Amino acid sequence: MSTRMVEVRAKVMKQNDLLARALRERFQQQNTCVIGLVSSPGSGKTAFLEKVLAGLARDHGVAALVGDLATENDAARLQRATPNVKQITTGTICHLDASMIERALEGWHLDNVDFLFIENVGNLVCPSSYDLGEELRFVLLSATEGEDKPLKYPTIFNSSDVAIITKMDMADAAEFDLATARRNIESVRPGMKIFEVSSKTGQGMGEVFNFLRAQLARPRTTAPLLEEAAL
Amino acid sequence: MHELSIAISMIDQIAEESASRGGLDVEAVHLRLGVFAGVDKNALLFAYELACEGTPLQGSRLIIETVPLLVYCPVCRQERTPPSVYQICCPECLAPTPEILTGREMEVASLEVAA
After folding, report:
1. Is residue B78 part of a domain?
2. How confident is the model over A108-129, as a mean pLDDT?
3. Could you tell me if residue A224 is inside a domain?
4. In this complex, do A7 and B109 lie within 8 Å of one another by their Cβ atoms?
């Protein structure tokens, strides 16, 4: 039986990307700076976010969405810093997508929220394919994980805008080679901004706060996280 | 393992395309997949077959064309292929190459349909 070819040229992630675009426009209109956080499980996303929310909450409206397969534990932790926290439990799904963000924001007024943080499921693979409408993506790497994480997971590091090296208070004990880690990050994402922090001691957090506050001063972007192809 | 979610999105996408063209009898799907798309080719092939079950695409073949990583070297002013996915630099002059030209694609290029 003969066949014919039909040209389609359709992005597989079209539905997600359209939703992400609509979210990004909404965030821009409400002047909310939205930051996505990705990392492997246990690298300190929630501890970092606790410190960030507590530090910013004094002068700014802050909110957070936090994704996990199960439990509300992380939301409970973050609610110590702000009541504006919602847990997204994904069941068996290994990543957040734009529709989950849209549903989680239903009934939420972002008008007075300067910063919304979206903590993804701990996973360095799957979240890289899903635009959530965030303005910047932070990838976290803990000093105890080893210097070569960026080389092993180049896609997520390359799709992120800022790298945060966490647990710097444990760097010596873990014999963490900071120079190599920085070189590896630079290798997978040339020019990437890097912060070294300890959520426990507060080391380096001042620079993160300065960076975040500077984001409010600049006009909100509507550009998608990854390159824009015709949707 | 998010390839199953990706396969389901793909099948929805194809169903939409098919419907907009009055219903197609799809025998094969040609997908362009970048090496930097964050999706494993073999896992996607496996997930596609599963996800097609009970849909009009059941029995169709998925043919994946791998799109290589291409970057722009600002020093040589040329398109280049970096040494690897974890060394995003120019293979000639070793300059860092933040600008990625191809490699993130994940698109249904065409459908092979019964004539």
Report:
1. no
2. 92
3. no
4. yes
